[in-house]
Amino acid sequence: MAGKIPQRFIDDLLSRTDIVDVIDERVPLKKTGKNYSACCPFHQEKSPSFSVSPDKQFYYCFGCGASGNALGFIMEYDRVEFRGAVETLAQRAGLEIPTEAQDNDSKEDKQTPILAILEEVAEWYSLQLKEHLQRDKAISYLRKRGLTGQTAKAFGIGFAPPGWDNVLSRFGTTAARRQALIDAGLLIDKPEEGRCYDRFRDRIMFPIRNSKGKIIGFGGRVLTNEKPKYLNSPETPVFHKNQELYGLYEARKYCKRLERFVIVEGYMDVVMLGQHGLHEAVATLGTATSDTHLRTLFRRVEEIVFCFDGDEAGRKAAERALMTVLPLMEDGRQARFLFLPDGEDPDSLIQQEGLEAFQRRLNRAQSFSDFLFDHLQGGEVPDTAEAKAMLSKRALPLIAQIKEGILKQLLMDNLAHLTGMDSQRLQQWLEHDQPAPIKDINAYQEPAWDEAHPAEYADYAPIGMPAADDNEFGYPPYYTEDEEAFSSPMPLTGKKEWKKKGGKKQKGEWKKSAAKHEKEEPIGKVVRMTPCRAAVLTLIRSPEALADLDIDLNYLHSFADSEIHFLLELITYLRHQPEAGFADLAAHFDFANNPSCRFLNQLSEISYQADADDGQRYLRSNLIRLQIDAIQQQYESLQEKLLKQIRFTEEEKQQYRDLQPKRLELQQLLKGQ
């Protein structure tokens, strides 16, 4: 049974491994002084900038910034997950991987029969495309779409015949196998009605594989007028839509050296591009592209091209993708945006134009920076002081999310050119501009409501919102002396030195009152602690705090903030992987390099505010506070519309009515913590 790998084994494995030997087996190294060097395997270069230190057992590239230990190198170079890298080094060292004891109902125990039954059914679907009596309509559809038999075989495409119990009767021969079919999402079980039947019927079947090539789910395209046209497997113990990409395994299998990925909309887009020799296309599974998707792709390539329809819906989807990729951009990474002609998709276009013409479109796709400023300008040239000020106000918070480097500076230079301002002055605004404090809307001093707004808005007068001093918890800041410090696992207990204003040092617990902190000066760099960061630390230290948490987090999705998005991804991941340890989280979310986790790099020697036994209450309080902040943000957005006398939609009217009672409800919850 595969369980969690103990941290002590990982530490012992690294101590037995010489990183120089590991890398030299894959990239020939040359002795240069006390270190070794080579041309970096992770980016194109002519002069060696890749250095390996035998003393520190660490590698670093001065060109692209790639760095890590032996495990990190194996993950990046061999393109394997964390466990795969551990297995590689363990086999090399002649060690057997131990596992920590797990309950009989562990995740691995649940996954084994599900993965096995999915493989069986996938083979059967493929066979039905060749042998079933009604296969002709499926084959006719695929041929009409231009698909060849060789391509269908390469992607494992099959046919789910008509009928309600084909899979059930053939594979559900025992109670255990029937339960495995239900857990795999292949059967729909309705015990209250006494019914159990096949989920996929009369559909073209596209198997979905994980990064190891194992089938974890299916997508089915209907052959009749039944709705929906496309049907995916539901969430299961092995299949999570917001983490998987269709075609990723095939891209890595059929393309020896991937240099970019193209994100398209549908299965047939991926398959048809692959048939024409473009093996770099992937598709999301009925969800918007997420941070998790993009991090997965950026770990393997430096360039991603988003492919969208050229209509209004396509533009809006592109803007959402822009906001998702923005915090992940850094020097060496590229994101491009390709808009197709009206009525065309990648499937149809590559059949009309061919591979070379389609590749030319990809190469001419709009760059990240151009699309960012086009989006910010809204198609207008900022030719007035007001327009330039508005552009700066919109651009600076977005540019601030990008990792420090040349790309960020060039974006600042571009903004300076568009606004006519000095780039250094803009940089000062970027560094010192803080989020506006929560306003006391009850003190609002605009003209009388009846004079400023039409009578039809009488029901939407300003509502009271939380004031700036609404902070009964008084979060003290965290401090760390080493800005670049990063340890694994992160120590979350201990003491910190404080210096009285009189100059005398003394030891002090972190659990001092906020008032006492205000009278003392910390030694080292201030790390601003927010409810979001506090919630992240709680989850990293005590993942069990998430158990039975029943807070609705929908309001948090309105935040355009990379750390909030990271928190939501962390919550989603831990709900599906509750036994994940620090090493699993650090590898999955790339703590060392992920801009959204940058604050973690500065917290290696701090203590932790909440007691372990109080983790859930502390997490709940911070999530509630974030919800209140989100409501404030939505209120201010609607308030701005009212001030400009822009009419509300019916949905916005209802949203405005709901804000006040929801805020009051959350405040009551907060007081009851």
Automatic annotation (TrEMBL):
The record's PROSITE patterns line, in alphabetical order, gives: TOPRIM
- Cofactor note (record): Binds 1 zinc ion per monomer.
Give the CHC2-type zinc finger regions: 40-64
Q: Where is this region: Disordered?
A: 490-517
Query: Does the keyword Membrane feature in the UniProt annotation?
Result: no
Which branch of life, at top level?
Bacteria
Q: Which cofactor does it need?
A: Zn(2+)
Question: Which reaction is the catalytic activity of this chain?
Answer: ssDNA + n NTP = ssDNA/pppN(pN)n-1 hybrid + (n-1) diphosphate
Q: Which regions are flagged for Basic and acidic residues bias?
A: 506-517
List the coiled-coil residues: 621-659
Domain annotation Toprim: ranges: 259-341
Q: What class of enzyme is it?
A: transferase
Known EC number: 2.7.7.101
InterPro entries membership: DNA_helicase_N/primase_C, DNA_primase_core_N_sf, DNA_primase_DnaB-bd, DNA_primase_DnaG, DNA_primase_DnaG_DnaB-bd_dom, DNA_primase_Znf_CHC2, DnaG_bac, DNAG_N
* Kinase recorded as keyword: no
For this UniProt record, give its keywords in alphabetical order, as a comma-separated list: Coiled coil, DNA replication, DNA-binding, DNA-directed RNA polymerase, Magnesium, Metal-binding, Nucleotidyltransferase, Primosome, Transcription, Transferase, Zinc, Zinc-finger
The Swiss-Prot or TrEMBL note on domains reads: Contains an N-terminal zinc-binding domain, a central core domain that contains the primase activity, and a C-terminal DnaB-binding domain.
Subunit notes for this chain?
A: Monomer. Interacts with DnaB.
Function, in words = RNA polymerase that catalyzes the synthesis of short RNA molecules used as primers for DNA polymerase during DNA replication.
Family that this chain belongs to: Belongs to the DnaG primase family.
Q: What is this protein called?
A: DNA primase
> What organism does the UniProt record list as the source?
Pokkaliibacter plantistimulans
